[in-house]
Amino acid sequence: MLFIRYAILTLVIWGLTGVNALAAWSEAKSENFIFVGDVSENRAKAIITELEEYRLVLFKLMGVDPEPEVIPVKIYGVKSSKAITDITGNVGAAGVYTTNREGPVFVLNVKGGFSQKSPAHQIAYHEYTHHIISAYSNNVYPRWYNEGYAEYLSTFEVRQDGRVKLGLPSQNRARALGQIKWFPMDVLLKSIRSYPYKNNNKRTTSHARAIFYAQSWLAVHYISSTEGYPEKMRAYLKRLNEHDVPADLFEQSFGMSPEAFGDLLKAYHKKNKYLYLTMNFNGGFSVPNIVSRKLTKGESEFHRGEAVRRFRKGTMQQELAEKYYARADEADGPSAQISASRAQLASERKDHDRAIAEITKALALAPDDSRILHIAGLIQLNIYKFKEAPQTYSVIKEARSYFKKAMRANPKNMTAHFEYVSTYAAANDELSKQAIYSAQECSYYFRDRNFIDSNLVLADTLMKAGKLESARPLLEKARVWSRSRQTRAYAKNALKRISQN
């Protein structure tokens, strides 16, 4: 059952502490999550357990039956904001979520442990909420709502009697609302595709980030708790995902100006009385099996390198990742996965000879590994696309062969599915049944805004195969949300052609 309660906020001031040195990492795995980080083995297992519980609650809240993640969510746990900056390049963040063709990943600051109500606790829930929003919805959400909703749910609590609480007031966000000058509401509500502050470590930016998250949390809390406002929000999102963003979109949906909405939020904050939800899980949580282990020194260094590779791009990524890979080699000796990652980085910088040499080592050690087979195919595809000299058709055939082997080794290797489709786009070949099937599967999975432009490969493939209605959602999203004017125009014209058929 679901109950509504009130909470009165009591402010707690958090103190700042020093940064711990790096230690040996631990790993915990379930069918939905893989955690690696700077915590004990028991703590790693506890993080996965509580994320699994949170996941079950979110699916119940959405009214759908949970199914295993297609690609498990990868989580890196570090013990300082500086470590997060080193990995991601984001300054001053307590957690960062992103997703790419390899799958969803986030990093969080686990400084101070992972007890109930700890900052790390809320950061983990916040970042996983981003994944739920991007992976399980066809809508794209404005930045202010995306961050506000993640904050709204991040105060999730489980009680010993099986009850869970959602929407409890956020101590640190409410404190910021009383201490920092607010953004004008029109600035906040125009934060659709990007944030209203720069990515640097200046004090003014730190304050801007804090108040942006605080106002976004308050806006979502008010909308979620006020009669009639969830319907207004649904109307707003519907319009937002159907049209280019008009200047008066908020007024059309909510029937008031941003300034009037801001006045309501200030009164709501001043009242200091917040609704929250209570749900009963009397039968407990059916959490999937979790296995954990302590990593070796070499494995820990490898995963640090992988975290950098997943989040950063360019020269900084290459140099920092290689530093960790070299330490891993020194500690545990060469491994197939290290060689595969080096091969992938070399291919990205168009060092094809180094890429082939490294992937040859990896394949010799693990010839049936799906990830390694996929990277082998990716190298051949990049050679076909990037080299100045014309490439023979045998190169694209070899790429396809590797991708098919990767898909056979792991049918859920969605990256291999996507790149297999890409070979047909690159060579302008007649589509195989596998290419059509893979394009459809990828169109269901790759929903995040990060894929909007590159998903045109899938849309073009599906249109070529006559699957016009399968292509339509990809094109609709690109028409509204792409940052490229050229992409928006292309999607608009493609949709016209579909409508004429």
Write the layout of secondary structure elements.
Elements: E1 2-7, E2 26-29, E3 33-37, H1 41-62, E4 73-78, H2 81-88, E5 95-100, E6 103-109, H3 119-135, H4 143-154, E7 157-158, E8 163-166, H5 171-179, H6 185-189, H7 203-225, H8 229-240, H9 249-254, H10 258-271, E9 274-280, E10 291-294, H11 297-311, H12 315-332, H13 336-348, H14 352-365, H15 370-386, H16 393-409, H17 414-427, H18 433-445, H19 456-464, H20 468-481, H21 485-500
Parallel strand pairs: 3-4, 4-6
Antiparallel strand pairs: 1-9, 2-3, 2-10, 5-6, 7-8, 8-9
Helix pairs in contact: 1-3, 3-4, 4-7, 5-7, 7-8, 11-12, 13-14, 13-15, 14-15, 15-16, 15-17, 16-17, 17-18, 17-19, 18-19, 19-20, 20-21
How would you describe what is shown here?
The chain folds into 3 domains: 2-280, Neutral Protease, domain 2 (Orthogonal Bundle), CATH 1.10.390; 334-416, Serine Threonine Protein Phosphatase 5, Tetratricopeptide repeat (Alpha Horseshoe); 430-501. Residues 1-6 and 8-21 have low confidence and may be disordered. Strand 7 and strand 8 form a beta hairpin. Helix 7 packs across helix 8 (229-240) and helix 17 (414-427) packs across helix 18 (433-445). The longest helix is centred in the middle third of the chain and has 23 residues, at 203-225. The chain is an alpha+beta fold. It is built from 21 helices and 10 strands.
Keywords:
single chain, 501 residues, alpha+beta, Neutral Protease, domain 2, Serine Threonine Protein Phosphatase 5, Tetratricopeptide repeat, 3 domains, 6-stranded mixed beta sheet, 4-stranded antiparallel beta sheet, 10 strands, 57% helix, disordered N terminus
